[in-house]
Design goal:
This is Alkene reductase. It comes from Lentzea pudingi. InterPro entries: Aldolase_TIM, OxRdtase_FMN_N, Oye-like. It holds the Pfam family Oxidored_FMN. It is built from 11 helices and 14 strands. With about 350 residues, the chain is α/β, with parallel strands linked by helices. It has a single domain, classed as TIM Barrel. It has an 8-stranded parallel beta barrel, surrounded by 4 helices. Strands 1-2 form a two-stranded antiparallel ribbon. Helix 7 runs parallel beside helix 8. The longest helix is centred in the middle third of the chain and has 20 residues. It starts with 5 loop residues before the first strand and ends in a 27-residue tail after the last helix. About 55% of the residues are buried.
Length: about 350
C-alpha cells in the first residue's frame, strides 16, 4: 500500500510516503540556498515533501540558520527550491513554524513571545551555542490576532513562492502547542483556561490560512501528549478530540506517534480527511520502517511520514520498492555542516 497512489486535496500523490519536516539549519541570512534546492529535489520521488520549519515572521524564528518566508527575498529564494522539486516531478508543502517561547534575542533580534511569561525550562540554539531559553513576553489578547495573521501572510507568500501548500507546525513545543499546553499557557482570557480556550489559537490560525490559500492546500502537524521543550498537556484525548472537531476540513492532519496506538486510532476515527502518521515518535528517536508504515496504513492511516530515513536515503521510495537496505545518517552532520546534506547517494547496484 505504501507505493499506491493517493489523492490529497488537489494533488495526486504517486505513493503514500511523506518526507517529514526536519530542521537542517543551513539557511544563509534567513534564506534557503542552491544546496537546499538540490537537497529537496533529490528527494522529489516522495509522494509529498514537507520542508523544514520556516518562520512566518521575524519574532517566530526559533534558532539560527533557519529559513523564513516573510520577505520578498525569502520568497524569491524559495522559488528556486520549489522549481527544482517540480522539475523533478515532486510536490512540496512549506511547514510554517513559529517558535513562540522557543527562541532567543540573539537569534533574530527579537525577544520571544508566548501565551504566558513562562520559560520552557530547556536550552535553545543561539549563534554562540546552547543557552537557557529566556522567559517569553506574554502576548496581549489583541496581539494574538497578529500572530494568527502572520501564518496567513506566510501562507500567501508560500503560494507565491511556488509551494503546493503549507503545513502549520502545531507540534514539538512550538507556539501552537504552547497555547494547547497547561504548562505554557496560564492565560485567563479567551485563549486559555478551558479546552475551548486552549484550542482557539490553533483553530484561528488554521482558519486564517485556509481562508488565505484554500483549505485543500493546508495541513497541521500535531504531537498529542508529547512532552518536549517543557510541554505538558492535560486530558489529551479530550483536548485533541475537541481540536479535531473544531478544525475546518483541511487537506490533512499529520500526527506524531506520541500517544499509544489506541489513542492514535481514536484520532484517526475523529478526522474526516487525510491522516498522516509519523511512526518514529517525537523528533525522531527511532527511524521509521516500511513495516511500521504498512501496519499503520492497514490500521487506517492514509499516508506515512519518514524523517531520519530521508536524510541518508534520497531514493527512499525506490529502496522500499525493491527491498534494498537503507543507509544510515551521521548525527554529527544533521545540522549546519557542509557534508551530510546533498552528498548521500542513491543506491548503487
Amino acid at each position: 500500500m505504501l507505493l499506491s497512489s493517493y489523492r490529497l486535496g488537489n494533488l495526486t500523490l504517486p505513493n503514500r510516503l511523506v518526507m517529514a519536516p526536519m530542521t537542517r539549519a543551513r539557511a544563509v541570512d534567513g534564506k534557503p540556498t542552491e544546496a537546499t534546492a538540490t537537497y529537496y529535489a533529490q528527494r522529489a520521488t516522495a509522494g509529498l515533501i514537507v520542508t523544514e520549519g520556516v518562520h512566518p515572521n521575524a519574532v517566530g524564528q526559533a534558532g539560527p540558520f533557519m529559513p523564513g518566508i516573510h520577505t520578498d527575498d525569502q520568497v524569491k529564494a524559495w522559488r528556486l527550491v520549489t522549481d527544482a522539486v517540480h522539475a523533478n516531478g515532486g510536490r512540496i508543502f512549506a511547514q510554517l513554524m513559529h517558535g513562540g517561547r522557543i527562541g532567543h534575542p540573539d537569534v533574530a533580534g527579537h525577544h520571544p513571545v508566548g501565551p504566558s511569561a513562562i520559560a520552557a525550562g530547556t536550552e535553545v540554539f543561539t549563534p554562540s551555542g546552547m543557552t537557557s531559553a529566556p522567559v517569553p513576553r506574554a502576548l496581549e489578547t489583541a496581539e494574538v490576532a497578529e500572530q494568527v495573521q502572520a501564518f496567513a501572510g506566510a501562507a500567501r507568500r508560500a503560494v507565491d513562492a511556488g509551494f503546493d501548500g503549507v503545513e502549520l507546525h502545531g507540534a514539538n513545543g512550538y507556539l501552537i502547542q504552547q497555547f494547547l499546553s497547561s504548562s505554557a499557557n496560564e492565560r485567563t482570557d479567551r485563549y486559555g483556561g478551558s479546552t475551548t480556550g486552549r484550542i482557539r489559537f490553533a483553530v484561528e490560525a488554521v482558519e486564517a490560512v485556509a481562508d488565505a490559500i484554500g483549505a485543500d492546500r493546508v495541513g497541521i502537524r500535531l504531537s498529542p501528549g508529547g512532552e518536549i521543550q517543557g510541554i505538558v498537556e492535560e486530558d489529551v484525548p479530550v483536548l485533541y478530540g475537541e481540536l479535531l472537531k473544531a478544525l475546518p476540513d483541511i487537506a490533512y492532519v499529520h500526527v506524531l506517534a506520541t500517544v499509544d496506538d489506541e489513542a492514535l486510532m481514536e484520532l484517526r476515527k475523529a478526522w474526516p480527511t487525510a491522516f498522516i502518521l509519523n511512526p518514529g515518535g517525537q523528533i525522531g528517536p527511532v527511524e521509521g520502517t516500511r513495516e511500521q508504515g504498512e501496519r499503520w496504513l492497514a490500521n487506517g492511516a492514509d499516508l506515512i511520514s519518514y524523517g531520519r530515513a530521508y536524510i541518508g536515503n534520497p531514493d527512499l521510495v525506490e529502496r522500499f520498492r525493491l527491498g534494498l537496505p537503507l543507509a544510515g545518517a551521521d548525527r554529527d552532520t544533521w545540522f549546519q555542516t557542509p557534508n551530510g546534506y546533498v552528498d548521500y547517494p542513491s543506491y548503487q547496484h
